[in-house]
From TrEMBL:
GO BP: any one term: regulation of potassium ion transmembrane transport
Subcellular location: Cell membrane
Annotated EF-hand domain residues: 95-130, 131-166, 179-214
Pfam families from the UniProt entry: EF-hand_7 (PF13499), EF-hand_8 (PF13833)
Top-level taxon: Eukaryota
GO molecular function, a single term: transmembrane transporter binding
Family statement: Belongs to the recoverin family.
Protein name as annotated: Kv channel-interacting protein 1 isoform X1
Major location category of this protein: membrane
Organism: Octodon degus
Alphabetized UniProt keyword annotations: Calcium, Cell membrane, Ion channel, Ion transport, Membrane, Metal-binding, Potassium, Potassium channel, Potassium transport, Repeat, Transport, Voltage-gated channel
Gene field: Kcnip1
InterPro entries the UniProt entry points to: EF-hand-dom_pair (IPR011992), EF_Hand_1_Ca_BS (IPR018247), EF_hand_dom (IPR002048), Recoverin (IPR028846)
GO CC terms in record: voltage-gated potassium channel complex
Length: 225
């Protein structure tokens, strides 16, 4: 696998790995070594200058990302099935299909059934180099499965369970079957400030910014590039 291809795939996967560390309490403060080596580029996407203005990437970085994206997705877009296959390669001991489905929907902001390079790089820019507020808004959108502007307990449980399923039975330390529910109970109680059974964006932002573990997880996104 080329360096560019690894860069494209790792961009999707880093987010899932970090969220899992946050949920299980295994998040480390150690800096992640940069695995995304820059290589010579021969591809150039249309509208490069516009993407440079809209994202936090340089022109060269956008060229590298585009080359990796086109190497893996010659059609210029990723469908959900391909997205699931990418995740399955990185999590061979678990079932990544459900989490990949939720994450794909978060990347597919126009709900077209495919993720174009522009969708990918815009989301990646937010996750890797966005402000704390931008990263939290993106994460809220991931958990808001039905896109009604709120997170209910069932939605949070669906995402958390999907992450546990993806990591598989070889997770260390070994997790009990009811561990996802226990984590969701704790998180939801903390986030649902007014106890109305739903978490609003404001409640989510406030709760996350009060939590040092979540802030450390967001810091990792700035270290991987």
């Amino acid at each position: 696998m080329s360096g560019c291809s690894k860069r494209c795939k790792l961009g999707f996967v880093k987010f899932a790995q970090t969220v899992f560390k946050l949920i299980t309490g295994t998040l480390s403060k150690d800096k992640i070594e940069d695995e995304l080596e820059m290589t010579m580029v021969c591809h150039r996407p249309e509208g490069l200058e516009q993407l440079e203005a809209q994202t936090n990437f340089t022109k060269r970085e956008l060229q590298v990302l585009y080359r990796g994206f086109k190497n893996e997705c010659p059609s210029g877009a990723v469908n959900e099935e391909t997205f699931k296959q990418i995740y399955a390669q990185f999590f061979p001991h678990g079932d990544a299909s459900t989490y990949a489905h939720y994450l794909f929907n978060a990347f597919d902001t126009t709900q077209t059934g495919s993720v174009k390079f522009e969708d990918f790089v815009t989301a990646l820019s937010t996750l890797l180099r966005g402000t704390v507020h931008e990263k939290l808004r993106w994460t809220f959108n991931l958990y808001d499965i039905n896109k009604d502007g709120y997170i209910n307990k069932e939605e949070m449980m669906d995402i958390v369970k999907a992450i546990y399923d993806m990591m598989g039975k070889y997770t260390y330390p070994v997790l009990k079957e009811d561990t996802p529910r226990q984590h969701v109970d704790v998180f939801f109680q903390k986030m649902d400030k007014n106890k109305d059974g739903i978490v609003t964006l404001d409640e989510f932002l406030e709760s996350c910014q009060e939590d040092d573990n979540i802030m450390r997880s967001l810091q990792l996104f700035q270290n991987v590039m």
